[in-house]
Please model this.
Amino acid sequence: MANLSDEGATKDESMSSEDVVVVVDQLEKIYSGDVRAVDSISFNVERGEIFGFLGPNGAGKTTTISILTTQTLPTGGRAEVLGYDVVKEPGKVRRGIGLVPQELTVDDELTGRENMELQGSLYGVPYSDAKERIDELLDLVRLADSAARKVKTYSGGMKKRLELAEGLIHRPEVLFLDEPTLGLDIQTRTSMWEHINKLKKETNMTIFLTTHYLEEADALCDRIAIIDHGNVIALDTPGELKKAVGGDVIEIEVTDCDEDILEIINGVPGIALIDGTCAENKARIKVPDSGAALPKILTNFITRDIQVASVMVKKPSLDQAFLEFTGRELRDEESTAGNSKKEAGARKGRFRRRR
Ligand SMILES: Nc1ncnc2c1ncn2[C@@H]1O[C@H](COP(=O)(O)OP(=O)(O)O)[C@@H](O)[C@H]1O
Ligand SMILES: [Mg+2]
Model:
C-alpha cells in the first residue's frame, strides 16, 4: 500500500516548523455512548497546500474540523494550528484561522453586505479596513452585484459563496472548509472550485477541506487523507493514491455460465491477473493493461460460447483508490457508527477470491 503515514512522518521531520501549519498527533474524539468519531489520527498539513480530508458520511471529518477550529475538545492526543495548541491556546488559534462550516450560518434577513459587516465586527476587523476588504471579497466570490439584496433571495450557491467570503474577512492563514460544495449543483460546484483555486494562487493560503466528492478532491487537493471510521487509512497526493490502484479494472458479467468465470479468465493465455474477484456471473479483475487483456478474454469467451452481458473498464481513479483502501465504494454506503471495520472487511472478502 502506498501510504504512508510512516513515509509522511519522515518527510515532515525534515521540514522546518514554519512549513507545517497543522499538526495532528494521535488525535481522538469519543462522544458519549462510546461513539469513536476520531480514532487516534496523525498527520501534518504544510503551508500553502490544499489538504483534502476525504471520507464517507460519518467518517469523522466534521469532528476533526471542530477540534482543529477549537469548537470541540478532543478526548485524546493533541493538535496544533499555526504553532498553537488547540486546547491550551484556542484564542490564538482562532485569530489565524477561518472556517466555512458544513451548515449555512449566514443571516437570511440581512443583506450580503450586512452579513459581511457583522462578520468583520465579530472578528474585530477595524471598520476602516473592513469596507475595502468586503468590496474585495464580494468581488472575489462574484456577489458584488447582489450585495444589497437580502440573503433570503439568494440561491444555495450564492449563500455558500457568501459563507466563503465571510470566512476570509480577517485574512486567515489557514482556511477550513467543511464540505464546501455539499448540496450544490454541478455548475455551482465547479465555480466554487475556481474560487478555491484562485484563493490558493493569489494568497498562498493553506486550505483544509473536507469532502465526500472524489472528483472534487482529485481536482483541487495537493494531498488527500482518506478517512474511514475515524481513521486515516491513506495519505498522499491524488496521483500517488491512484498509482496505488496498480492497474486497470475490468468488470465482466456473463449470462448463464456454469463454469467459474474467474478460473476461465485466469487460464486465458497471456492474461496476468493482478487481482480478481468473482460473484455468481460477474467477475472483477485487475490487469496491467485492459487494452491488451480485454480482446483476449472476449475471444476466449466467444470460442467457449459464453454470452457476455456487460463489460466495464475502469482506469485508475480516486474511486478505485478508495475501493482499494476501504474495500468498498465511497458512494456505496453511508458509514455509520454501527458499521464496523470488520463488516467492511467481510464485504471485501466475499467478493475477493485471490490476491
Ligand atoms: N455531537 C455528537 N454526539 C455524538 N455523536 C456524534 C456527534 N457528532 C458526530 N457524532 C458521530 O460521530 C461520527 C462522525 O461524525 P462526523 O464527524 O460528523 O462525520 P463526517 O463529517 O465525516 O460526516 C458519526 O458516527 C456521528 O454520528
Ligand atoms: Mg461532516
About this structure: The first helix runs from residue 5 to 13. The two ends are 13 Å apart (CA to CA). The chain has two domains: 5-242, 246-354.
